[in-house]
Structures are given as C-alpha cells and as structure tokens.
Amino acid sequence: MHLLEVNNLTKSFGGLTAIRNVSFHIDEGEMVGIIGPNGSGKTTLFNLISGFLEPDSGNVTFKGENINGLAPYRIVNKGIARTFQVVRPFRHLPVIANVMVALKSPRGARKIEWIKTMERKAAEILEDVGLSGVMLEPAGNVGHGDLKRLEIAKALATEPDLLMLDEPFGGLNPLETDYLTKSLMRMHLDEPSRGVLIVEHKLYALMKIVERVIVLHMGEKIAEGKPEEIAKNEKVIEVYMGKAT
Amino acid sequence: MVIGHLRRAYSSFAAHVFDIPPRLMAFLFLMILLLVPATGLGPYYLSIVIYANVVAILAASWDLLVGRTGQISLGHAIFFGIGGYSSALLFKYYALPIWVTIPIAVVIGSLAALLLGFPCLRVKGPYLALVTMAFPLIISSAVNWSPVVDISGGEFGIRGLPGFFPFLPILQQRAAEYYLTLVLLFVSSVLIYKTANSKTGIVFMSILDDELASKACGINVTRYKLLSFMISGLFGTLAGCVQAHLLKVANPPMFELTISFLPIIVTFLGGIGTIYGPIVGAYIYAILDRYVLTDLLPRILRDNFQVMFLPSGYNFAKLLVFTLIVLILVIKWPRGVSRFTTDKLEDLEEARDLDERGPRIWKRYKKRKSSTAT
Amino acid sequence: MIYGAISGGLYALLALGFTLIYGVSGLVNLAHGSFYMLGTYMFVFFGTFGFFVPDPMLASILALIVAVIVVGAVASITYRLTIHPVIGDEVAVLVVTVCLAIIFQQLMLLWFGASFPRVSWPAGSVLLESTSIMGVTLEYSRIFAFVFSLVLFASLLVFVTKTKIGKAMRAVSQDREVAMLMGINTERLYMLTMFLSAVLAALAGILITTSIEKFAGPWLWLQPLALSFSIVILGGLGSIKGSLLGGFIIAFAEKTVEIMVPEGGGIVGVVPLAVIIVVLIVRPKGLFGKRVEMEE
User: Is A115 in contact with A122 (CB distance < 8 Å)?
Assistant: First the structure.
C-alpha cells in the first residue's frame, strides 16, 4: 500500500483547468520532488491533497484511506503536514508559541501532558531547525529565512507521516539554502519512514535531495523519474526553456 | 500625538525613576480601588464606580473575543440583555433567589453564545460585524412583539427585581454593591486573563493572526471559535445579570447599540489586550460620562457662569460629544481600536528602519516630500 | 402583494446605494441608514421653504431635490474628513461609520427635538389621493414612488455603463490599483460615489416615508441599514442585479410575515435580520455575489 496515492485528480476554476488527470504515488520513506514552470498547478495540487480544495474528480488516498473532502485540520491530524509558499506565521505570537499552536492539535499533543513539556518540545523542534536564537521573538519581527524555517518547524510539530513542503527554498540565500538542504537530509535519516513531497523552483537544490521527480506543466503530469533522467528529458527542457509553441 | 508622548513619558518615568514593577503597580491600583467607599463618597458617586465595574466586566469579555480571538463583535449587548432578562425571568416565574438565578442565567448565556456562534463561524470582517450587530436588534424587536409582551414586559421590561442587599440602608448598600462588583470584576479579569495566556489562549491568538495557518497546524478552528464565544458570552452575561439586579429592572435598552459600543470605547481608552485595559477604560468612561458631563459640568456652569437651565438637548448633546470624541480618537489612532492594523505599524517600522539604515536616503526622501508639499 | 412589489423597488433603491459604495471602494457604510433618515428630515426642513413658487407640489419637488443634494454633499464631505483617513482598516471603518450614525442621530435630535415630524406631500396634492387597481387601494404617492424608483434604476444603469464616470467606477470596483495606474483619481471618485450612494439613500428615505411610513424619527436609521444590508447580502455584495432582486424578495418576505404571522406587524423588523443570518449560513456570497469570502 502506498503512503499517498493520487488518482486522476482534476480541478478547475471557472474556465481554467488547474489540474488535469494527475496521478502519482509516494511510498513510505520516499523523498519526491514536484517541479514545473509557474502556473503549472503545483500549489493547487498541494491544496488538493491537504484539504484546502476539493477535487472535481479523482481521489486522494492516504494510508489506504480516501481523504477527499476532509477538512484540512482533519487531514493534518491524520498525518499530512504542509508548509505554505508564502510564509504564514502567527505574527503576534512569539516564535515558540507558533510551534506550540501546532502542538496543541490532537496529533501534536499526543505525547505531551503539561504546558512545561509542551514548551520544551517546542524548544527542541526549534533547535532542530536552527531557530533557538529567536525563540522568544514575536514572529512578526523575525527575518524571512527564519520564517521559512518556522514554517517547517510548525509542520514537523504534528509529527507527520507525509511532509509536504511548498517552495521551502524560496528567498533563501546560498548559505541558508545549504543549511536547509543538510537539515532536510538529516531529518530524512532521523525519520526514515516519513514521506516527503517537495515543490520547488530551485532545481539544483531539489535534485540533490529527492529520489524521484514529477514534472507538471499546465496542470498535467508530463514526466516522472529519477532526477538525472528528468534533467535530460527533452519535454522537460522544452517546457522550462520555452519553445515556440 | 500628545497622548502618545504622555504615555511614553509616563512609562519611562515609572520604569526608571520609581522602578515600579507592574505587579506592584497593579497592587497599588487594587488598594486604591478597595479603599474607594472609605472616602466618604455619597451613594450617587458610588453608583458611578459600581457602573464602571460592571462595564469593565462586559469589556473584558468583549476583549477576549475580539482582541484575542479576532472575532469582531458589534453586538455584545446581546449578552448583556440575555443576562438581565434570563435572571429576571427566572425570578418572575420561579421566584428563585438571586444567588440561584444569576448562575443559571450565566449558564443560559454561555449556551446562547454557543448558539449565536454558529452563524458567525464562516464569516469575517464586515459580514461578521453586521451579523453580530443584528443579534441584539432581533431580540429587542422580539421583546416588543405583542404575543410575548406579557412575558417580556414589552417596552418597560421586567421590573421589581430584587437587589443584592435589600436589608442594608442606602449608603451601605452601595458600598456593599461596590465590593461585590469589584470582586466579580477581579475574578472575571483574572479568569479571562489566564485563559488568554494559556495554551488555549495561544490558539485563540493564532486564529486572530491567520486562521488558515491555524487549520494547517491541525487546529479545529471551529471548536476554538465557539469556545471563545462561550467564554465571552459567559462573562458578558454575568455583567448583564448584575446590572439588572443593581437597577432592579431588565428592559430593552439593555440591547441597545450604545451598550454594544461600550466595550469598544472602553477597551480602546484603556488599552486593548491587556488585563487592566478594560478596567481603566471603564473607570475613565464612567467618570467622564456620569460625573464630569452629568454632574460636574452642569454644576460649574451653574455656579460660575450662572447658566441656570441647560438647553433641553443637553442629554442628547452628551452622547453626541462623546461619540464625536470617540470618532476623532479612532481616526487619529486606528491601531488603538483594533489589532488589525499591523500593516500600518509595519509601514511605520519600515520607515524607521530606513532611517537607521540609510540616513541619506531618508533625508533625500524627506526633502523631496517637503518640496512637493509646497 | 402589490404593496410588496412597490416596496420592493424602493428597497432595492436603498440597497443600491449601499452596494454601490461597497463595490467601488470596499467600504461598508454603517451610516447608510443615516442618510435615509437625513433625507427625510431635510425634506421636511426644505419643505417649509416655499421656494418662491406658487404651486405647493412644485415646491415639494424642489424640496426633494435640494434635500437629496444636501444629504449627498454632507455625505461626501463627511466621508472625506472621517472615513477616507482610515479606509485601509476594515474595523476602524466600521467603528467610524457607526460613530457617524450615532452623531447624525443626536444632531437630528438636537435640531428637531424628539417629536416625529410628519413627512408627506403637501395637502391637496394629487399624490395624496388613491386609486384602485385590481381590487387594491393604492395611493398615488406609492405609484409615484415606484415609478420614480424604476426610472432611477434605469438611469443609474445607463450612467454606470455608458458614462465615463460610470465606467471609472466599474474599473475601480474591479481592480483598484490598476485603475489608479490608469490615472483615475480614486479619492475623488470615492467622494463622488459616496455622494451618489447617499443621494440614493435619501431618495429612498423620502419616497418610502412619504408613501408608507409617513413619519420621520432620528432613530430611523437602524432599520433601513438592516434592510440595505440584508438585501445586499441576499443579492450579493457589489451586484446591482442582486440588489434589485433582493429588494423585491425582502419586501415580499416582509409583507408575508406581516400578514401570516399573528401580530406580524410588530415583528416585521426582524425579517431582514433573520435573512442576513440565514443567508450567511447557507450561502455567504448571496445570489450574485461578487466579492466572495474565499479560501486562498
């Protein structure tokens, strides 16, 4: 049984078909990347899987269970966590409280009893992503690179079986990119059974981490395979470099 | 501008010169409050501070819902009225004593809040404001509807409610009422404050900041919103019950828009999101409205300027002036009214950063601005 | 039934003003009902002027025009002074407009006192008589109001679609920033829209009061506000068609309640409010909603 199965997913907005007949699957412990030019439907796909949008047709199955139409918070509590391309921190709360919100969810709270332990757990998670320094700062005062890490921390707090990252490298400088790459790889070693799905533009960073790449273009899956294969795939190059179409 | 300067001056003064920790300040304030009846004020003046206490409870309940969870409420009077009427009806039909009717009424209020919360779940912003505004309007219309007028007492409401301390003479009665309301205020404030700073309170705040992100963290936002409604309703109802028994009547004006407005004005005056905000604001309001405008000013006019009779519209003018003040305050300092103006604040901060990072850029910008301004 | 139809048109007019200012500037004007109320008072006030015209009916018409323009001007200026500074902040706008509504209420109380002045066409006017259509007695004033409102609707439609200003309004309502880039002065446009919106409300106020209510009062702004809001929610914020349809639906609903519910007259005021709540639960964007509360 696959960890995540997406079957013939289709979603349209008015006249525009954002996702057309997309199918793929992810197994436990796999790290998969999704790439595609702007507007190819990557974030829509995320929204469909995480419950923020409902598909017009097709289904999404997680751990054997059909999760179509479930409310986002339910899906999180089943084990899928996602980040947002444009960071969504809780600006009025200190960084550590941001993580604590996720820990307050039923799934995040599973192993926590008192508020002290929750704070400690939140502090641990923040340490893992390298945010110990700004723990008590209001999230509104924290820099972009740190906010990106906070997004991931919040997602990790719910101990997901499938972690979905939407452009985690967006806006990061080379130092931060390197740090994040290493962090992701380390996380993978720590949690070998966790599946990871990453949407990304920065191909060189992505290709280093993932085992498999799916390519979307205009809402359709046009290629799937190992990073090296995809890099040489004619169709993919055409779509990215642009041809007179 | 002036108030901002004053505030900053005051806080730095208090912090540096006296080095008074906030706890001590709160303690001192509490001491002052406790000693009020001992100052020998008459019953009328005591009723002013009693009113302040009640308003403060209402405002604190509002602040939890609006300042902390982000669900704007322009109809908080509904809880006030439900509190008053529930307690009154329980007395009218079951002749239950006060200390039974009030807890029951508070429970009824919380349940009502739960119910009222449902339509509010899916809407936000102006929609939410108007839905909440609609609630008290509906009930006050319903109260005047002929078939139920026998029950509700129609325009005049339900009168003859028992007071809290009927066995005491007037002055002592007021003093006792003052302490009672003070205790209730204290308990309510502490409970609300503790809730706001608990894990649950953190989740409330996450809903205020970014509901979507909160959902993405696995939070059942609906449940928390309803919880916030219930707690807010609980204390709002309490304020209403108490007021009804202080005035010995529960009537339609309890549902009026001006009552819904009180928490907004009061919390704004005192400081949003703080524990002392509603209290300070309520006292400022009560003193301003009931003493300065109603008592002091007419007396000064009478004694010093020989103004014997105030124009008949003076009462109307009071509300007018008051609202005008609020209006001006809101326009000058919108971030005092709501926390939703973080954008404006960020702009200000950015401008300040620019000042630090690039003094030349800033000067050039300023020069350009002033030249185009002329 | 017929009454419902007539009221419907008038209600729609009222709601139109509300949806207009929202569609163009994103502004929820809780003082909209106040303009309704101010219109009636100004009509009474100017009605005593005479205007050096021998025919009282003509004087009344002039009074109507002047009153409406005055209210519009007041609205426009007030907008510029009080609302425009806070237009970015939804909450502040709400608080400001409610404050304005209360202030207007108190001002009218101070000026005219707590009595309820009679609002009607001058005595002897043909409009005060009635006729019978399909077995229902109808005052001419109602027919006049109805026809007037339809004419107004039509002319407004033309204005919005054909004239330059109307097109500017539509542009701004669709995308404010692009419209600004195109050189449209949004600030003045908003003032103009406010003027128009208030004029519509004032007209609705005068027409409705002269034909149905007959009395003015300083507190008479809450109910029109509730009406406007419920019609606009029902029909969809920002949609002109919606306001039209919504107006009729609400009017019919009110009449139905009045007739069918025992002592319905007292509770009729609740109808628009209940509609608001029901619509927001069932279908928040209304029938033809333009601005939808969306998940991103």
Answer: no
